């Protein structure tokens, strides 16, 4: 009996220690209490403006779902610097930690984004580097020193933020920077996964996604792969530098041919379709708004009015200015828009020249331009000089309303009255001859 009393008293004395106020000290670890979620976001293909909206949505969804981490799987040849800088801002502002995983290659802007993440992991056989910026105008030319210096600083900054050697990142941008035993003074630095591991430029090499998750401490986590929506895929395709230039070239060339031939036909339909795809892609990518499209439509209307109702070119110049402004405003920056417009105009001029040369050899050209001169040999006889009729009197053969026919000295002549109705058989007199226009008036009896 005394033993039972002792146990009961011991339980009563220990009960306060297990009150609701202290249960938090005995909870299960967070990883066991709640399932961890890792979002995998593929970054495939060129880095361009359409990619920004996709990554923005993917990062936002991961944050809303309170994901534990985001893995950015990179496989890209590079792309636009402006787009890469904007994606870097998205990565830096993300409340969910983002880790880079280079699956195959991360060149140029891809190398920058790989270093912009929390840590850098690579797959066996993958490569990173070759980040020298090139001009969008083609020819493989390196950009000016100002842009090159700014890009080098950006590469150094993200490498330092990740705890990597900034000099290695700079060697990926400038050929003259040499990393001993890895590159020379005439080549850009590009590292394989094993080379990056040797100089501690990667945080690890993972052959599979499962290995990577284990390295990150998320083994067994729920994996959510974010895919691109059809609209995002269309935006990326239509806003890529090559496709945007092609659409703009076709739109400008077809519009010019439509205006020069002053008709609404195939060229006009092609132009509208090309511009619709160009601006539609930029709207989907978040680069342009409906006000930009409205500005373009106004410019197009002004050009068409100028084509059908010439007025000294005022409306034409205003329309061209509105179209140019809408194209520049749809780009990420004014400089990028001007470069895109300049290259498209040059290509459009070539397209127009080649098109008209081809049309001259086809039957279509004869429907646009007169192919022969109207000579006497072709049976054409021009109107004679009728000034000798001034002052002559005759009689109207038909009612003049105000135009009609009259007879002078036994010759039938087309005439026009001063604007009043004259009945047939009215005596008339020629008062003026203006080219082929013979003006008559009634003779007062």
Quickly list its features.
8-stranded mixed sheet; 2-enoyl-CoA Hydratase, Chain A, domain 1; alpha/beta; 5-stranded mixed barrel; OB fold (Dihydrolipoamide Acetyltransferase, E2P); 3 domains; 445 residues; 15 helices; 13 strands
Write up what this structure looks like.
The protein is an alpha/beta fold and 445 residues long. It folds into 3 domains: 34-228, Alpha-Beta Complex (2-enoyl-CoA Hydratase, Chain A, domain 1); 254-367, no CATH class; 383-442, OB fold (Dihydrolipoamide Acetyltransferase, E2P) (Beta Barrel), CATH 2.40.50. Helix content is 46%, strand content 16%. The chain is built from 15 helices and 13 strands. It has helices spanning 2-14, 30-33, 49-64, 81-93, 109-116, 145-161, 166-171, 193-198, 209-216, 230-239, 241-261, 266-284, 290-308, 314-330, 334-360, and strands spanning 37-44, 69-76, 98-107, 120-122, 127-129, 190-192, 204-205, 222-225, 393-396, 403-408, 411-417, 427-434, 437-442. The strands form 2 sheets. Strands 1, 2, 3, 4, 5, 6, 7 and 8 form an 8-stranded mixed β-sheet that branches. α11 runs antiparallel to α12 and α14 (314-330) crosses α15. The longest helix is centred in the C-terminal third of the chain and has 27 residues, at 334-360. The radius of gyration is 39 Å and the shape is elongated. The model is unreliable at 4-33 (pLDDT under 50).
